[in-house]
Write a structure and sequence with these properties.
This protein is of the alpha+beta class. The chain is built from two helices and three strands.
Protein backbone atom coordinates (compact mmCIF):
# COMPACT_ATOMS: atom_id res chain seq x y z
CA UNK A 1 0.00 0.00 0.00
CA UNK A 2 1.40 3.40 -0.90
CA UNK A 3 1.90 6.26 1.54
CA UNK A 4 -1.26 8.15 0.55
CA UNK A 5 -3.37 4.99 0.79
CA UNK A 6 -1.99 4.32 4.28
CA UNK A 7 -2.73 7.87 5.41
CA UNK A 8 -6.24 7.78 3.96
CA UNK A 9 -6.84 4.40 5.68
CA UNK A 10 -5.75 5.94 9.00
CA UNK A 11 -8.06 8.89 8.37
CA UNK A 12 -10.96 6.55 7.60
CA UNK A 13 -10.27 4.60 10.82
CA UNK A 14 -10.79 7.91 12.63
CA UNK A 15 -14.15 8.24 10.88
CA UNK A 16 -15.21 4.66 11.58
CA UNK A 17 -16.73 5.16 15.04
CA UNK A 18 -19.38 7.31 13.36
CA UNK A 19 -19.88 4.89 10.48
CA UNK A 20 -19.68 1.73 12.61
CA UNK A 21 -22.15 3.18 15.13
CA UNK A 22 -24.72 2.78 12.38
CA UNK A 23 -23.47 -0.66 11.27
CA UNK A 24 -21.47 0.59 8.28
CA UNK A 25 -18.05 -0.38 6.98
CA UNK A 26 -15.50 1.26 4.69
CA UNK A 27 -12.42 0.41 2.65
CA UNK A 28 -10.01 2.52 0.61
CA UNK A 29 -9.99 0.95 -2.87
CA UNK A 30 -7.56 3.41 -4.49
CA UNK A 31 -5.40 6.34 -3.41
CA UNK A 32 -3.08 7.69 -6.09
CA UNK A 33 -1.01 10.73 -5.14
CA UNK A 34 0.06 11.27 -8.78
CA UNK A 35 -3.49 11.55 -10.14
CA UNK A 36 -5.03 12.88 -6.90
CA UNK A 37 -7.78 10.26 -7.08
CA UNK A 38 -9.11 8.43 -4.03
CA UNK A 39 -11.81 5.75 -4.21
CA UNK A 40 -13.57 4.73 -0.99
CA UNK A 41 -16.24 2.05 -0.75
CA UNK A 42 -18.88 2.04 1.97
CA UNK A 43 -20.64 -1.18 2.89
CA UNK A 44 -22.63 -2.79 5.67
CA UNK A 45 -25.74 -0.83 6.52
CA UNK A 46 -24.44 2.11 4.44
CA UNK A 47 -25.93 0.19 1.50
CA UNK A 48 -29.45 1.46 1.09
CA UNK A 49 -29.17 3.93 3.98
CA UNK A 50 -31.03 7.18 3.44
CA UNK A 51 -28.14 9.29 4.71
CA UNK A 52 -25.28 7.45 2.95
CA UNK A 53 -25.21 10.21 0.32
CA UNK A 54 -24.54 12.77 3.08
CA UNK A 55 -21.81 10.54 4.54
CA UNK A 56 -20.28 10.21 1.06
CA UNK A 57 -20.34 13.99 0.49
CA UNK A 58 -18.74 14.60 3.90
CA UNK A 59 -15.99 12.07 3.16
CA UNK A 60 -15.33 13.69 -0.24
CA UNK A 61 -15.17 17.20 1.18
CA UNK A 62 -13.04 16.28 4.18
CA UNK A 63 -10.51 14.18 2.23
CA UNK A 64 -9.98 17.00 -0.28
CA UNK A 65 -9.58 19.50 2.58
CA UNK A 66 -7.31 17.29 4.71
CA UNK A 67 -4.97 15.95 1.98
CA UNK A 68 -3.25 18.47 -0.32
CA UNK A 69 -2.56 15.83 -3.00
CA UNK A 70 -6.21 14.69 -3.20
CA UNK A 71 -8.23 16.38 -5.94
CA UNK A 72 -10.99 13.87 -6.68
CA UNK A 73 -12.78 11.51 -4.30
CA UNK A 74 -15.23 8.84 -5.40
CA UNK A 75 -17.32 7.19 -2.70
CA UNK A 76 -19.07 4.01 -3.80
CA UNK A 77 -22.03 2.62 -1.90
CA UNK A 78 -23.20 -0.79 -3.17
CA UNK A 79 -26.94 -1.01 -3.48
CA UNK A 80 -26.94 -4.78 -2.97
CA UNK A 81 -26.32 -4.68 0.77
CA UNK A 82 -23.37 -7.04 0.22
CA UNK A 83 -21.20 -7.18 3.34
CA UNK A 84 -18.68 -9.73 2.11
CA UNK A 85 -15.04 -9.73 3.12
CA UNK A 86 -14.08 -7.61 0.12
CA UNK A 87 -15.81 -4.59 1.66
CA UNK A 88 -14.40 -4.81 5.18
CA UNK A 89 -10.62 -4.69 4.82
CA UNK A 90 -8.27 -2.97 7.23
CA UNK A 91 -9.58 -4.63 10.37
CA UNK A 92 -12.66 -2.45 10.39
CA UNK A 93 -15.97 -4.11 9.96
CA UNK A 94 -15.91 -7.88 9.62
CA UNK A 95 -19.11 -9.60 10.63
CA UNK A 96 -21.80 -7.06 11.37
CA UNK A 97 -22.77 -6.76 15.00
CA UNK A 98 -26.52 -6.41 15.14
CA UNK A 99 -28.17 -4.32 17.83
CA UNK A 100 -31.74 -3.68 18.89
CA UNK A 101 -31.79 -0.62 16.67
CA UNK A 102 -32.97 -0.93 13.09
CA UNK A 103 -30.65 -0.18 10.17
CA UNK A 104 -32.68 2.97 9.56
CA UNK A 105 -31.87 4.39 13.00
CA UNK A 106 -29.75 7.55 13.05
Amino acid sequence: MNDLAERVEEWMVGQMPIIQNHGGTSVVREADAETGVVVVELGGTCSGCGISNITAQNIKRDLIMDFDEVDDVQVKVPSTGDTGSSTVEGGRGGDLQFSNESADHF
